[in-house]
């Protein structure tokens, strides 16, 4: 493989990452080819020693997603971490998907339910006292507050659970390319 | 190369890079070629590793003019990196001592080997 093709395949694999990160990574590998040439090695030799560019790109992408998730725990960083995880897209992860997707779906559904309980708690709190709530207005206010705080508690619990799930995915992803993938493609 | 060799080498790659850098700053190509000679693995793996170590604050980078061509990115080990290195060297010594004890176990009784590690 020539230098141009290596860089092209690397870039293709990095698509979707921030521009400046891609530029930095590509510059690293360009520098490697320059240093190799100064060392008297051919482009093909250097490319062969570097290894498969698509696989390197997958590892770099996954690491970047992992770092984002580590530095900022937000829904969007969780989502991009999950995408980077899916990007590893190889057999063991495809096998895992039927397990992972329902879990993500259930967590999402629970979030929606918690939000609904919170909103209806607010409704009971505000509208209950004026609409003949069984037990009187004080009961309506307390019931409303109770529903809202239960929703907040359940939401916090769900948050912890989803952080745990994403962490577990990241752990598996690292395990994947450190142990499982080298074991599958021991030759490249 | 057998499977156990690959796993072992991948596991200690970070330790080896820190050890190299603790003896002087270096650039990725030089690190990679020294590692490739000694540890025999894809040179490309060095870049994901260096980026990870940089984000963990174990190394920092700076640019320096090279005698041939454009400036090179040099890596320098940080204090955190040195701490991590001495921790990992300690772990490595304990581990290899334990494995050696087991491998050579046929020559010396097990209990003796174990007590000598704890002592």
From TrEMBL, chain A:
Stretches that traverse the bilayer: 77-97, 103-127, 139-172
Keyword Transmembrane helix appears in the UniProt entry: yes
Taxonomy, superkingdom: Bacteria
Keyword terms of this UniProt record: Membrane, Transmembrane, Transmembrane helix
This protein's name: Uncharacterized membrane protein
Organism field: Novosphingobium mathurense
High-level lineage: Bacteria, Pseudomonadati, Pseudomonadota, Alphaproteobacteria, Sphingomonadales
From TrEMBL, chain B:
Organism domain of life: Bacteria
Domain Transcription regulator PadR N-terminal: 17-86
TM helices/strands, residue ranges: none
Pfam families reported for this sequence: PadR (PF03551)
Protein name in the entry: Transcriptional regulator, PadR family
Source organism phylogeny: Bacteria, Pseudomonadati, Pseudomonadota, Alphaproteobacteria, Sphingomonadales
